[in-house]
Amino acid sequence: MDLRDGQTQPILDPNQPTHVYHLALDIGGSLAKIVYFTKDDDRLVDVEEGLSHRKALEKSNGSKQYPVLNGRLNFKKFETSKINDCLDFIKSMKLHIGGRQPQENPGSQPIVKATGGGAYKYADLFKERLGIILDKEDEMDCLVAGANFLLEVVHQEAFTYMGDQKQFVQIDKNDLYPYLLVNIGSGVGMIKVEGEGKFERVSGTSIGGGTFWGLGKLLTKCKSFDELLELSYRGNNRAVDMLVGDIYGGMDYAKIGLSSTAIASSFGKAISDNKEREDYKPEDIARSLLRMISNNIGQISYLNALRFGLKRIFFGGFFIRKHPFTMDTLSVAVNFWSKGEAQAMFLRHEGFLGAVGSFMSSDKHGLKELLANQVAQRSPRKLSFAVDKILHSLPDGEFNGDESIECSVYAA
User: Fold this and answer.
1) Residue 332 is part of which domain span?
2) For residues 212-226, average pLDDT
3) Which residues form a coiled coil (predicted)?
4) What are 228-241's pLDDT values in tens digits?
5) 58, 99: one domain
6) Angle of the 209-219 helix axis to the 225-233 helix axis, nearest 10
7) Of residues 378 and 183, more confidently modeled
8) For residue 189, what pLDDT is reported?
9) What's the N-to-C CA distance of the chain in angstroms?
């Protein structure tokens, strides 16, 4: 797959659903994510012109042409609590019609790859509403496969963020492993990744995105996760948190390296202040809550990286949402506890790791059959996935989630 990073487009219009193939889902506790491929046209790629496919072509048997599907890889997310919105979108776009048919019984219900707990919880609902069978893939397998794929082939996928400075990291896929993958969803999973298919879940915490959203909903009037994040951006956690300076009369605790602005106790000022909950601003509460959870995740992540001697920590999951304050807090926590020896890195497609991994599992069957039918003279042995490093992303490399990326699926 050739992902043309710099050419993101708005999600496709529901009035043009006729060339949809290979829907895949990741249904988590908080969000349901879908990835699907839409075909633009078919063509043959000549060896000389197909620079973006050079690695696959070099492994060929000398043939000059290969079946190619040009189109877009589309991304979309929904709140799991509103799973019917997801079902309605799939139905309106006719995404389920692109599901593969079991070879032994072509007339039976389409099968769609899915991962996450919701693949089990909502399996009957998808069957009843859309007439599709969810073919379940292991959640950890998909997370790691999606992260490995994106880090190995997508230009400017990883970046650092600290002190309002964003810097993309050039990943050498020959020197990618090992690394710690921290997936922040409703809860947090921490996975030591050592290679393709080689990984181990080493830790986690129940204090994650679901905690932020749940407590935030109880403490503020926010109706959505994004609304809560936006509220936190306007807040000042110092109005709620007890700082080192509050304890030491505005002074640092220099002996152990704590500045006066370091948080000594999250929400600690509520103990001593003669105030009721209604006296605190919702935005300050949201900011303190976000800081508390992000600091905790950052510290636990570093301790696990230290445990296994890992210098790279990649953070993924929709908790982050490219939110500057969240990324900065995670980075500062890792930098502080590691004394600058470890580095926090973030992923452009942070929330779609599992969905991408689920989509990639289609390589085992559906995409191969589809490509084989494009050109009769040559049936592909397998699919090859690569990216042309000549192609560059937009200057800021932003990715909002509900967008699509121009790509080509081709055979080698």
Assistant:
1) 209-240+280-347
2) 93
3) none
4) 999 999 999 999 99
5) yes
6) 80
7) 183
8) 94
9) 11
pLDDT in tens, 93-140: 888 775 554 444 555 678 899 999 999 999 999 999 999 999 999 999
Average pLDDT over residues 276-293: 94
What are the b/e assignments for 334-360, b being 16+ CB within 10 Å?
A: bbbbbeeebbbbbbbbbbbbbbbbbbb
* Average pLDDT along the chain: 79
Quick one: 301 and 387 in the same domain?
Answer: no
Tokens of 188: 């947090």
Strands of the sheet containing 343-347, edge to edge, are 165-168, 158-162, 343-347, 312-316, 179-184, 188-195, 198-205
Query: Residue 216 in contact with residue 222, Cβ under 8 Å?
Result: yes
Do 398 and 286 belong to one domain? Answer: no
Letter string b/e over residues 378-408, b meaning 16 or more CB atoms within 10 A of that residue's CB: bebeebbbbbbeebebeeebebebebbbbbb
Task: Give dist(CA 45, CA 370) in Å, integer.
Answer: 17
Domain count across the chain: 2
Give how far Cα 93 sits from Cα of 23, 86, 106, 370, Å. Answer: 11, 11, 22, 20
User: Distance between CA atoms of 165 and 186, rounded to whole angstroms?
Assistant: 27
The dihedral region occupied by 309, where left means phi > 0, alpha psi between -120 and 50, and beta the remainder, is left
90 lies in some domain: yes
CA distance 8 to 404: 5
Token couple for 221: 């009037």
The tokens describing 229, both together, are 């994040």
Tell me how crowded residue 286 is: count the other CB atoms within 10 A of its CB.
27
Q: Is residue 327 part of a domain?
A: yes
